[in-house]
Design a protein that fits this description.
- This protein is mainly alpha-helical.
- 67% of the residues lie in helices and 5% in strands.
- Strand 2 and strand 3 form a beta hairpin.
Length: 237
Amino acid sequence: MLAYPYLSGVVLIFLVFLFCFSCRSDLRKLMLWGGWYYFLMQAIVLLMTKLVSFLTHTNRDFNPIYWHPRLLFDLNIKAGGYGLEDGLFIFLVGALATLSYEFIFRKRIKYKYKHKHHLAAIGASLLLYITLLFFITNPIYPLIASTFFGAFVIWFKRHDLIKHSMVGGFVFLTTYFAIFFIMNLIFPEFVKETWDLSINSGVLISGIPLEELLWALSLGFFWSPIYEYEHGTKVAK
């Protein structure tokens, strides 16, 4: 396990997931839905981009580019995309971001609000896909931009979810920061050996790349109210 720092980090996130899953049985459906929905959204973008890259004979690898973690079976190098750890990571962060607001503030999903909406997830996915397809760039920046865009769509369509989104965003950012900080204590060379800071901003906050924290904040903004937005519900104590 110690030979695979990224996998160790995924295990830490999984432990947080298990803690939340065991503490709030009423939010288990929310967590599982949020995790699978985020995984599906990312998988569709990846597969569509790789398909177009294959047909047009262009290279659109996702990993390794700005970072190059050691993965099981070296799938990121062999496939030019995600590995098993990435799939688990995407599912887990999607689940945790979805319940961040409800878990901390002891909220429950109580009643219907209006009709269901899907514009935020579709719009964010399309923006990410188009940016990755037509612009050769560090993929972390299109990911951050598209995720913030999804949050803005939710804010525009559901003003009542703005507070939910912003508070949930900072809660998830704090959670992600704490997990990453522990990772750096266990693996002091993790960031130095894994990230290519020359194509990022190079800014580190407590040893954590700035882009990672921006992504965590954007995901929290976007994904913490996504269930209420998609299902037309509200939360109450």
